[in-house]
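Let's practice the habit of predicting before peeking. Look at the sequence and jot down your guess about where helices and strands might fall. Then scroll down.
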Amino acid sequence: MDEDLDDLPTSSPSSAAILAVVRHAGGVSRADLATLTGLSKAIVSERVRWLVESGLVEETGANASTGGRRGTALSLSRSRGVVVTAEVAMTHLQVSVFSFAYEVLWEERVPVSMWQGPELVLDELERAIERGLAATEAHRPLCGIGVGIAGPVEFETGRTIHPPVHPDWHDQPVRDRLQQRFGIPARVDNEVNLMALAERTVGRGRNVRDLLVIKVGSFVGAGLISNGKLHRGAQGSAGSLVTSQGSEYLVQQAARLVESGRSPLLAEATREGQEMTARMVVHAAQRGDEASRELLDKAAESIGQVLSVLVDFFNPAIIVVAGRPADGNDFLARIRETIYGRSLALATRDLQIVPSELGDESASLGAAIMILDEITGADLLTHTARRLSGPLGTQQPAPRRQ
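Done guessing? Here is the structure:
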């Protein structure tokens, strides 16, 4: 590099604004950036030069000509710098390594349950991160870690608050633990919030300013995008729903159906040694098991009743429903029927209620979006640029969140 990073406009808001456009638009030219940001061409040229030299941005070729000289396309780096993401779900860990361009470079699913307690789960998480970094050595350095947890999280401190599992999960300083262990910024949020970020950015909620994302997992949770931004609430608990009829409820009720003899298909699966799951209930219902169908119908109606209140209160344009039970068309149809039947006509006039298309990776993708938002924002841009421009593997203390 020709100049020291300390002498460049590292933490200016304009640098962060330009980088945000490059991240979300991709393939833009310097002229495009001047138009989209309202900055002068001279400032854009200076800031882009620094972003390229620091390794945050790559020149990826020439854009198509619009009549004049073709501009050079700019994109976020694909070859240098990674972030690690983790979904701490009730029944497993999903750990991934992403490039700055949201490419999955490595991923691993670890069969460990939150019911086993935080020490075991977080130890497994740290070991999985180490395996991921070893497997993606050529793309390093590591610049950030984003984690989604299936339970309430106080976002400002990155601590778990009374998750409905093992009591030792309460007040776990997950963010601080990871920052101290790996020496880089970490952020922790509720997993459904991260699913909402993913849906807003690359999923069914693209270009939608008011969006509600529902996950029917072990429990039922929601993520809210309001006026284009994730709404966490004062303490980070926005999206908690007054219904427990998720997978845990379905499994408990399915066991009772087996005991009572009301579900021959579930009883047969149990005798064959299969573990009772919500997906098993969905499959039984699809095969004509009346008791399973009634169970799913009741759960869907309960969820729809709660969502109908949110529809009237929040008035989203789209509701995206994710989770294994939602894979069944009848389940989603029953939710739609309940909402349309109970909510205000104006609130449902143009409302879309659709299944997620992002699959099981949406929380991990949302975690990548969250941490990249943080480390490429004005507050942390200098720190990220210095890591990218330094020797591979260099660790610096992670900045404290103000």
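How did you do? Residues 91 and 136 are 26 Å apart (CA to CA).
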